[in-house]
Amino acid sequence: MDSSSTEKFRVGLVQMSCAVDPNENLEKAIWKIREAAGRGAQIVCLQELFRSQYFCREENAELFALAEPVPGPTTETLGRLARDLGVVVIASLFERRAAGLYHNTAAVIGDDGEIAGIYRKMHIPDDPLYFEKFYFTPGDLGFVNFDTRFARVGVLVCWDQWYPEAARVSSLSGANILFYPTAIGWHPSEKESHGAVQVDAWRTIQRGHAIANGIYVAAVNRVGHEGPAGGGLDFWGSSFIADPFGQVIAQASSSEDEILIAECDPRRVEKIRRNWPFLRDRRIDAYAPILKRWLD
After folding, report:
1. Residue 120 within a domain
2. 174: which of 3, 8, 161, 295 fits an S-S bond (Cβ 3.0–4.6 Å)?
3. Using CA atoms, how far apart are residues 247 and 216, in angstroms rounded to an integer?
4. What is the pLDDT of residues 210-237, one digit of tens each?
5. 296 domain-assigned
6. Domain containing residue 284
7. Choice among 121, 132, 226, 258 that is catalytic
8. Do residues 114 and 88 touch, judged by C-beta distance below 8 A?
């Protein structure tokens, strides 16, 4: 479907805790996708790296064994499910592209069971307990959109969600909605002192992308504690869907497995952009400095 369509579409976000066993997580995701489809979702998005616990908490070369090719076993399994249910599935995976070359990749699987395309995470963090640069090569496909039966979608991944440039470029390609599969949480020692403001900043920046681009934004995060007691990460869930004016139309808790369902209306995009014409008034002749690392 192209971005000019006015048909409404329904999205489903699967927020869940993850076990140590990847197969257990896949089976859980399958049942959650079935439930989301049963509740009317047409596009179902899973959280970042849903097949495993968030392994980037440590630098351990043995964990490269969690990676798989794309296409591969998981996309084949989810492809059969998507075809059977008649839904689109967005699946965030640890991609083994070649020996020694790995990506944090989101596959968009169409309702025909085929891969409509992939997005490789562009912004790779390196922070305490988020040692992603050890595992992932930055994406080389750019910020791409995918045409599905129900909507034209943009897909970005976690750390990408802090960058207005990524949201802007993806939006300019005509997406109706931006999906952000996510794995973000608190360091337990910081939760009491900084937890509320961290979640607020995370939610605010993404609502800002929705407003600035007049587009739906859907962020799906994991929940639960992963890692040693007293350490590790407490994932804060709080998955949400915002409309093109930044209003939150569906919101999950910070601690429970949940499936969020929301209806999105492309006519809302049209209405908001007519009344708040940020795209019209962009000064594209004046933005060259943004391509520099710093303005000395």
Report:
1. yes
2. 3
3. 9
4. 999 999 999 999 999 999 988 999 999 9
5. no
6. 9-291
7. 121
8. no
